[in-house]
Specification:
Length: 144
């Protein structure tokens, strides 16, 4: 992950709040998560990446429809919570990775779907993150 002045404060802030996010009803449930599940059910995906996964709820929703889901976040504390929550579920196809949306470590045209829920407003360079998503998505792939 590229280190920069903008990412460090977000890493610290969300690392401190990770346990709250993991237990929050707002993040565990809700219309936006239901919408992702509804769209996910429309297809089957080989490789999915969830950006700004937080404690992983969106990645967990994608798992039944995917061969492999990679839950990414810039805050190690969020990934700790995602790992903890995964332990109680049978999600052998979900992996975790420390990565920022503005600099994705994937080859062009390599992902079948990209998800991001309640995270984009935290990206330090949203236009760059969007460009990265389009770079790594296969042509015609959905963006949820």
């Amino acid at each position: 992950m590229a280190e920069n002045r903008s990412a460090r404060p977000a890493q610290d802030q969300f690392g401190r709040q990770a346990a709250f996010y993991a237990e929050s009803v707002t993040f565990r449930h809700g219309e936006s998560l239901d919408a992702v599940a509804e769209f996910a059910a429309l297809g089957r995906y080989a490789r999915v990446v969830d950006l700004g996964t937080g404690p992983g709820f969106t990645a967990f929703i994608m798992a039944p429809y995917s061969q492999h889901v990679l839950a990414t976040d810039i805050a190690p504390g969020m990934l700790v919570q995602a790992r903890r929550l995964m332990a109680g579920r049978r999600l052998d196809n979900v992996g975790l990775m420390l990565a920022e949306a503005e600099s994705l470590p994937f080859t062009p045209d390599s992902l079948d779907a990209v998800t991001s829920r309640q995270a984009a407003h935290h990206f330090h360079a949203l236009p760059r993150a969007v460009a990265e998503v389009w770079r790594v998505l296969k042509p015609g792939a959905p963006l949820y």
